[in-house]
Amino acid sequence: MTEAPVTRFAPSPTGYLHIGGARTALFNWLYARGRGGKFLLRIEDTDRARSTPEATEAILKGLAWLGLDWDGDPVSQFARAGRHAEVAQEMLAAGHAYKCFATQEEIAAFREAAKAEGRSTLYQSPWRDADPATHPDAPYVVRLKAPREGATVIRDQVQGDVTWGNDQLDDMVLLRSDGTPTYMLAVVVDDHDMGVTHVIRGDDHLANAARQMQIYRAMGWEVPIWAHIPLIHGPDGKKLSKRHGALGVEEYQAMGYPSAGMRNYLARLGWSHGDDEFFSDDQAKAWFGFDGIGKSPARFDFKKLENLSGQHFAAMEDAALLHELDAYLAATGAPALTEAQKGGLAKALPLLKGGVKTYPQLIEKANFILSSRPIVPDEKSAKALDDVSRGILSELTPHLQNASWTRDALEAAVAEVAEAHGLKLGKLAQPLRAALAGRTVSPSVFDMMLVIGREETLARLADAQG
């Protein structure tokens, strides 16, 4: 039996959870969860000037909203600096690394001379094979003694085999002169120590993989399975940026997209399973694999996101929808719903879920149940409540008082009054909707009457008549 995979998501806490990062996290989560494996979280907080606790919190909240649960506690890369340095010292002792005493000025001079002579500007340190007896008492960095001949091949699950000539890869720095580890070293040590079997990340890391692989080999560690996924572009085919709109996951929560719709859409962004567009988490976990990932950048499309969100609203369990609505209101700083509002909303949800794509749309459609008397009509619906319409509503009131409270009976009562005035049912529904909901868009007037009941319906009609 194949060993269960261990994947990881390793964001830098320098800002919000980017939509591209969210998709990377989702792909790692799906791959691990669909195979009974582990999904780990590592915060790459070694850039102390830019890493903030607020950004870490934003990333954790973004993942939580997306429903991407991780195993164990998040690992801080900065807290493991001692371990990273220990590995560099091991490589030094084994002859896989060396102390380089070259100054920044010497390196710059080497590159300038190489450029002028048309040679490779890849720095070749004179200290690579120097006798330790010649080492000065001066600051130094620790460099990897990378192979100079042959090639490094990344057997990538998405990109195929990618080959780098070793003469194109430099002796990268592992420890800086102040003894702090570099990102390249830290990533490899952390992935190895965390038992990561599959590294699934953006294809902007493909060149890093070739250099990181040399550290794995130097340490005699097992190399993980690589899968470098194409980046996300905007609708215009350019790299996703602020000009295309929202970039942070929390912005999508604030816009009111349901998390299930967001997961579904992000999964489809660069991965496919036949012609399937709408699917559940369980289906995504069962289906997700590297063979479905395309090699070209995916294009972000708001219309597709909205379409999938609408389908997820329609399919969502009422309890899950109400729970997420609470989280949406909290995230946007809106007042929480009262117990009475929740009760009314739960009753009305079957009428509300169809056709909505975001929580603001749901709230707008639910205005009739969330508002309390007197209902104040908005500008558009107020136009339907002229003197003539008010008169007709007052004539309708006794018919409704005596009707049995069923849809057929209510329709018959309204149809009778409309016919007496030579009106079509829809014409009378407009002022009725304005009186009951205060909006031009709402569920059917009969559905609203059934949900709010006889007493509330009659009271709202009385208010509208002034």
From TrEMBL:
CDD domains: GluRS_core (cd00808)
Motif ('KMSKS' region): 239-243
Pfam families in alphabetical order: Anticodon_2, tRNA-synt_1c
Aminoacyl-tRNA synthetase class I anticodon-binding domain span: 338-464
Keyword Lyase applies: no
Main subcellular localisation: cytoplasm
Residues making up the signal peptide according to the UniProt record: none
Superkingdom, taxonomy of origin: Bacteria
Residues holding ATP: K242
Residue span(s) of domain Glutamyl/glutaminyl-tRNA synthetase class Ib catalytic: 6-306
The keyword Cytoplasm is annotated on this UniProt entry: yes
Keywords, comma-separated and alphabetical: Aminoacyl-tRNA synthetase, ATP-binding, Cytoplasm, Ligase, Nucleotide-binding, Protein biosynthesis
Compartment annotation: Cytoplasm
Residues spanned by motif 'HIGH' region: 11-21
Reactions it catalyzes: tRNA(Glu) + L-glutamate + ATP = L-glutamyl-tRNA(Glu) + AMP + diphosphate
EC numbers, comma separated: 6.1.1.17
Entry function: Catalyzes the attachment of glutamate to tRNA(Glu) in a two-step reaction: glutamate is first activated by ATP to form Glu-AMP and then transferred to the acceptor end of tRNA(Glu).
Quaternary context: Monomer.
Family that this chain belongs to: Belongs to the class-I aminoacyl-tRNA synthetase family. Glutamate--tRNA ligase type 1 subfamily.
Protein name stated in the entry: Glutamate--tRNA ligase
Record lineage: Bacteria, Pseudomonadati, Pseudomonadota, Alphaproteobacteria, Rhodobacterales
